């Protein structure tokens, strides 16, 4: 997969050379190209922002600079006649979820355009929407100082889904067996050795070797944690079995 990122802080993306994503790049699974937005600003100060029409606080990123940057990145296409999916992080975007990460992982080419200041002149998104698929996406309901951190989050969520990026030890296929964001259940607690640490014991069932009972216990813990921390997820959980309904009824008689 090819990923281009255009930013006024390309050095912000140093973590993309570490660990999982560093290895994926070395192996050629990920082709990440970073670009300095100011390279497409032609005035002496390499200006990328200007005051907002209509007044108000802060500055808005200039359309001409982004337009030249995106045109130029798109003009260096991979072998086929493909175009990138343009991803613009913004708190006013559609929510980036695991489902969106799976969608992006199936794309050959992503182009991220993280903004600073009050965002990018909206005509840029309108212009490219007539040529590319343009997604304005939010990673959550909080405001960052810029879109760079959101790009790091999204690239990591996508990269771990690419074939060959994860080892067998923590395979993506496990995501669909263990409770997780895909099933609308939170993961329950996990433990490793020693069996007693500072007087705290590992739940006995996990040491029992009864694989069926362990699976049931984990499911119950996942249901309990989801009920306590993210109750809104439970309304969306599919295919609850009889034991699931009993576990939920124990937590809250209105459920299950
Ligand atoms: C921000 Br400025 C800026 C640009 C993108 C994003 S995504 C998010 N949660 N906050 C702020």
TrEMBL record:
Molecular-function annotations in GO: tRNA (guanine(37)-N1)-methyltransferase activity
Signal peptide: none
Known EC number: 2.1.1.228
Annotated binding of S-adenosyl-L-methionine, by residue: 139-144
Keyword Transit peptide: no
Name of the top EC class for this enzyme: transferase
Subunit-structure text: Homodimer.
Record's protein name: tRNA (guanine-N(1)-)-methyltransferase
Encoding gene (name): trmD
